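R.M. (postdoc): so does anyone remember the format we settled on? I'll just put the structure tokens first.
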């Protein structure tokens, strides 16, 4: 099932604490070199071809920062395909806060100012991938992870702040042209070569960087998956707590979330519905707390012997999907149209009305007394 092998520290705490509001600093090493106008040239960086059939070189590890009309900051991670010295494509084909902000700007006929911070500390990247509610500041989440406010520095040509510890910052605007530029293919997080798509264009107005910057690119799928899993697990834990389900463990994988709970009547289904509401979750499985969800055999045992498909499997059609998933047939969509998917929930908790002792685990007699050395001799 493509699951992780250990619980994340974030999920085991059940939440992500927010630090005090990010702090603005007047200067940072990322401003050692400032390039504007004709000096803006992405070719000065060794942007790699990451996969053999990619549509071009890609910047895959940038934290993209924008603001809504009220001035509230939003951060997320989006891939950028090199087009020319001052232009890239930007992947906004699926649901995201940045897509929503861009659509509002595009419909108003104006560009959306953004900045892309490359080479950001892991806390900044984790904060950017957290599924924060609209209006929440992902950099406050990053500060909570590091235990201190995140230092931000203001950009040169756009009214946006970026992490001061970045190696490189690309400033500019997403042009109000809509989903009209071809972008891709790209080897994506789902372990497949994605399709050619239509996406907006990001035009760069300034580049700032350290004197000897490091260009960081996120490698697919594992770097991306491990980065996202921790935040998915934390979000899943929180959403279960919000609906008053006693959760004891959470585990995330490729579009999959598994949770162990201390169940009251009916809460297996309640937990499934809550988990399936997460945008990144396509499949959810819920077990009782006696199942070690980090042990694949125990998880399969619970699914095999605590589940009756007609009663314990939930299918939710027409839910929010990801264009990266080939099964949603995103290539059939019109440019800018959002993909839909069916979601699957499996309630692998002990069924209502079946006594718990029916699932009493067998034990081997005298096992605690046996020493192999008594039979095989000392090694």
């Amino acid at each position: 099932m493509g699951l992780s092998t250990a619980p994340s520290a974030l999920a085991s705490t059940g939440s992500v604490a927010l630090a005090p509001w990010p702090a603005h600093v007047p200067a940072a090493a990322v401003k050692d070199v400032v390039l504007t106008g004709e000096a803006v040239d992405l070719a000065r960086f060794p942007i790699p071809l990451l996969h053999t059939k990619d549509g071009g070189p890609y910047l895959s590890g940038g934290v993209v920062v924008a603001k809504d009309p009220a001035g509230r900051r939003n951060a997320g991670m989006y891939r950028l395909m090199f087009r020319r010295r001052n232009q890239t494509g930007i992947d906004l084909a699926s649901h995201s806060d940045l897509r929503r902000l861009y659509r509002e700007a595009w419909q108003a006929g104006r560009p959306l100012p953004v900045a892309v911070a490359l080479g950001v500390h892991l806390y900044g990247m984790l904060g950017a991938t957290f599924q924060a509610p609209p209006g929440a500041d992902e950099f406050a989440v990053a500060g909570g992870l590091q235990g201190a406010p995140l230092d931000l520095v203001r950009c040169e040509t756009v009214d946006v702040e970026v992490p001061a510890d970045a190696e490189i910052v690309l400033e500019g605007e997403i042009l109000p042209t809509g989903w009209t530029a071809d972008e891709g293919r790209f080897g994506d997080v789902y372990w497949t070569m994605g399709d050619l798509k239509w996406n907006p264009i990001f035009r760069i107005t300034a580049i700032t960087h350290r004197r000897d910057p490091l260009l960081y690119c996120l490698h697919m799928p594992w770097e991306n998956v491990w980065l996202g899993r921790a935040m998915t697990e934390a979000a899943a834990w929180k959403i279960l707590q919000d609906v008053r389900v006693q959760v004891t463990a959470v585990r995330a994988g490729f579009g999959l979330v598994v949770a162990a709970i201390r169940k009251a009547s009916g809460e297996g289904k309640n937990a499934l519905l809550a988990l399936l509401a997460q945008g990144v979750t396509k499949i959810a499985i819920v077990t009782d707390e006696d199942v070690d969800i980090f042990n694949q055999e125990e998880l399969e045992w619970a699914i095999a012997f605590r589940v009756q498909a007609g009663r314990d499997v939930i299918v939710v059609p027409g839910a929010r999907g990801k264009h990266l998933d080939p099964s949603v047939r995103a290539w059939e969509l019109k440019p800018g149209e959002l993909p839909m998917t069916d979601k699957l929930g499996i309630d692998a908790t002990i069924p209502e009305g079946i006594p718990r002792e029916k699932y009493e685990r067998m034990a081997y007699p005298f096992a605690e007394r046996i020493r192999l050395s008594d039979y095989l001799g000392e090694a």
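R.M.: ...and that's the designed sequence above, right after the tokens. Also worth knowing: DSSP finds nine helices and 19 strands in the chain. Confidence is low (pLDDT under 50) at residues 1-14.
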